[in-house]
Amino acid sequence: MEGRRKQFCCGLKDGIPIALGYLAVSFSFGIMAKGAGIDTLAAAVMSFTNLTSAGQFAALEIIKNGAPLMEMAAAQLIINLRYCLMSCSLSQKLAPDMPFFHRLLIGYGVTDEIFGVSVCRKGTLSPFYSYGLICAAVPGWTLGTILGAGAGDLLPARLLSALNVAIYGMFLAVVVPPARDSRVLSGVIVLSMLASAVFAVIPALGGISSGFKIIILTVIIAGAAAYLFPVKEESHEA
Q1: Which of 87, 102, 148, 156 is 20 to 30 Å from the Cα of 219, by its Cα?
Q2: What b/e readout covers 96-128, taking b as 16+ CB neighbours within 10 angstroms?
Q3: What is the mean pLDDT of residues 216-224?
Q4: DSSP state of 26
Q5: Residue pLDDT, tens place only, 15-44
Q6: Which H helix or E strand runs over 230?
């Protein structure tokens, strides 16, 4: 029991920076949701159940345009398909005998930032550490939405734009520290940036959605890195 509490507290501590970043980003989402005609309660439920900035911002446009539910479902599937890859990768850090309900609850909280923090943690990933991350991040994301929806259109456009890019700064804070200690990881990051720029420049590739671009680049670049530079498992004597 003591070990579980310690893991949970470590997760809460590591999740505080994520929660603060989410608070800023979801604040802008709350403002935009209010502008799209979504009330505060519905926006809060949307944030609590989705935990995906790209998917939620895209959903606002679909809702405003009155598109059918099938279009909403297809868009969310494409945009958030990367979380399937993240979950598959994260499952390799879980104990083989971990019960399904733990895996299900951990899967609920898989986001880019939580995934980044989790994979950087050494050793087997405790579900209670993940619960700590989730219990810090989810309230931050939901509370920011509520505050933003309550603020309405009071903030100037420049400040709103600044809040929209806050999540990228937070993600850099997750990626940069481990990249300093690994040339392979640094190379993968640089190559990913270059490949993403190519997708943005070439007109034929410009029509591909951002979520599907992430899937393509992740499979190709991460797969090549895993094949060329496999991570050696540490052996422990019984």
Answers
A1: 102
A2: eeeeeebeeebeebbbbbbbbbbeebeeebbbb
A3: 80
A4: H
A5: 999 998 888 888 888 888 887 788 889 999
A6: none
